[in-house]
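User: My advisor, Dr. K., asked me to get a structural model of this assembly before our group meeting. I'm new to this, so sorry if the format is off. These are the inputs:
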Amino acid sequence: MIEFSDLHKEYQGQSVLGPVTGAIEKGGITSIVGPNGAGKSTLLTMMGRLLDPTGGTVTIEGRDVFTTKSRDLARNLSILRQENQFTARLRVRELVAFGRFPHSQGRLTEEDLEHVRASMEFLNLTALADRYLDQLSGGQRQRAYVAMVLAQDTEYVLLDEPLNNLDMKHSVLMMRQLRRAADQLGKTIVIIIHDINFAAAHSDRIMALRDGQVVTTGTIGEIMRDTVLTEVFDTPVKVIEVDAKPIAIYYS
Amino acid sequence: MPRSEPAPNTPNTPSGPTAAAARRLPSLPRLSPAARIGLLAVLVAVAAACYLLLFIRGSFQFAFDRRLTTLGTMVVVAFAHAVATVIFQTITHNRILTPSIMGFDSLYVLMQTSMVFVFGGSALARTDGLPKLIVQTVMMVLFAAILYRWLFAGRFANLHLLLLVGVVLGLAFDSVSSFLQRLLSPTDYDMLSVRLFGRMSNSDGSYLPLAFAVCAVVGAVVWHRRYRLDTILLGRDTAVSLGVNHKRELTLMLVLVAVLIAFATALAGPMTFFGFVVATLAYQLTGSHEHRFVLPMAFLLGLFTLVTGQFVLQHIFYAAGFLTVIIEFAGGIVFLVLLLRKGTL
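Assistant: The format is fine. Below is the predicted structure of the whole assembly, which you can bring to the meeting.
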């Protein structure tokens, strides 16, 4: 379980998040949704200890993420940000192998190579293993990053907009792959996602943010309601049922 | 760089084992990074042997000892500039800037100039010795350490700001130096100007044991962290996610860079573009991004450049003193070409 309490972040005296208190349950997929500027990325990057908070604490299974040794934490928690810029020109295989760094400190064992192979296979990257990242399409590159994070083989996986750059087909594939990682590998996955319907269709829980506050957290059934969504997104939303699944309509 | 590229329109999702095997085949004749380093090491050994043993006139012992000292200096200079530049470019996430931009060369020039200005030109030669070398090195490391501490401990922990401050301070030091130089007598200025260009051949052999020791210690620390440096290539966030203590690595590496450059500058004078050239060549020729290959490659390339350059200039053109001038000239041109082609830092 990831717990955060009194967590807040200010820039030049202006609050961008919080103070917020809450928790992300272990197991399954939790989607963080909310309008632009709600503080979703800020919350996620602080949970992943990439950003220092102005105040408050984050614990993962009782361990404070900001004081626990980074190397130990990296075997338990991985985080992928939206933009990734690398100085070196890397092949897919080399990038995914970096995911094993917390376990091997650079010297890859047979077991590490097996993990690398498996996570490339998991994301259908085997055929692209020897391509350079700059020879890939945006979606393929996105999958390569996710493969690196999965190769890290951590219980908790935090992903900032993994559907960025992905078309309809690959968005669905990515969500199914994450679903599989949660169900078969028993991982706890937290993702930021823009499309509320994608979140509803593939995740177990939704955490909704607005104006730097957690508005509500709950199961799909609890969140996918006209009143809740209308409040969160500050725009009229209507939820209808299609094939017994809730779909939010907000285009009118 | 030669590389086997798959056809641009290859369908990218499923592909059988045969396709993967066919794609791997064309890359077979390429040399592995380790083989390339071995090859270069042999070339360096040959060049060093030629430099030490050929064209000796008069006493063999005298010439050999002198050349051995020069070779030792070249080893230190090549090591310091190559390693410092590669590390610096890794932690600053760019492949154009070099440590010299942090104002190191300018500080060295300013120290020399103020010394002549205050004590006269003869003071340069009178004070030469180990203490002066150490004092100069300590001052330059202190300068870097204070700059880094101030910038990293403060509210604006930002590498680009650090670089900017380095550039501005460098310019300020340059202006003060050139002002002071205008006030010097022609004789003093003449004595000073000899010190303001890198020189391999007239450095004192008594510094070398210390210089080797410093290089060995720094080299050991860097080698121990070679894989961590690789992760830093992925950027701060990814490195932290992989469990690297990014801030600590950054500070340590900047201090090591300061030590290396300060020592090399104090020993053989300022060289602005040498590190840039060998690092750029090393990225191109190594065939890998891994520091365990790039660092030795850069060092050997640097040494090869210096030894062959010195050999050719000394015995064919009789102009040994111009080696660094030529390297800087060529390096500056490469720097400008790359900068113009890239269009940004």
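One thing worth pointing out at the meeting: The first helix of chain A runs from residue 40 to 47.

User: Perfect, thanks a lot.
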